[in-house]
Amino acid sequence: MSSSIDTSLSWLDRALLRMMAYIVPALERADWLRTWHAELWHMRHQRRRHQASLVVDLSVGLVRDALWLRTESWRRTFVGTATLCIASLAALSVVSLLVGLALAGNRQVLGTGLKQVLGRSVVAAGLVVFVAFATASRRHAANGSKIKWLGRINRQLFFAWKIVQVLLLAFLLSFDLSLPLRNPLPNTSDFFQMLDFVLLAVVGLRWALRDQELRCKQCLQALTMPSRVGRPSHSLLEWNGSEMNCKRGHGLLSVPEMETSWCEAARWIERGDPC
Prior knowledge:
alpha+beta, single chain, 5-stranded mixed β-sheet, 8% strand
């Protein structure tokens, strides 16, 4: 990489290019180097009197461009993935724990308060999970069984870990909301903590179930935005509804507009399966 940088540039320009080039994704690094090398050369050699502010602006633009390319590469890689989902829930739990620590004042008070409400929250969590699954409507039907057993295991593990993360986040948030009342009104704070926990857990579990339905059955990637298929005025004559595709081409989720005897639920169609 260093051999491609013109030595006619100043040592500061060369050092900046080398340092920022490591941040740029490898597939875009060559084009990025050529573009910014030309910009720096033009500024240094074609402008006899270049202002210091222009040099600073160009250097800042070079750094911002490299950082944007790297963040955009991360966005394309991780957006909609199971890894980002779990990491986001974990980050929210950490933030909630830090908020609780700030409200409690020290770790000892926080730990004591969490232990006091942990037992009944675990019991309530079991009841909430049972009710959520018992009342959940069956909205998906698999078409065929081409998903490998390892993919099925990964899917179930992801779903179980997501539920654990949702319940943990609901527990921490409910504790944070009730913490200001713990000293003046301990009984009232316990009641509100349990009520908040149940409400947050129900909402979180509903989201987890919905999110699981709208993911690829193989790679667990979030499906694309729904696209309309068919004509609503021809409901009795032809299929109409919406379709969501896997970004990696594993298949699509076909969701009917209305439930009928021949199409009662959404259907996952593997790539290559007959429609």
